[in-house]
Amino acid sequence: MTFRPCSRVACLEPSVATLTFDYGESLAVLGPLSGRKEPHSFDLCSRHAERTSAPQGWQLMRHRLIGDEPDTAQ
Known about the structure:
By secondary structure, the chain is mainly β. The protein has one helix and four strands. It has one helix at about 45-50, and strands spanning about 15-20, 25-30, 40-45, 60. It has a four-stranded mixed sheet. The protein is globular.
């Protein structure tokens, strides 16, 4: 796979996740980096993926990324 920088302006970090939107369902989906660049998706670095939130009134579905630690906080 070739280097794909983060889609956020002025961020040159490598992408680790892909963000897509389902407008009909008001759903944003953040998952592992897709195999290829898609025209209607956003590739994000780990910092921006972690800080991503859904637009108001939308749901955000997060799929675990490779290397994510399971949440063990109680």
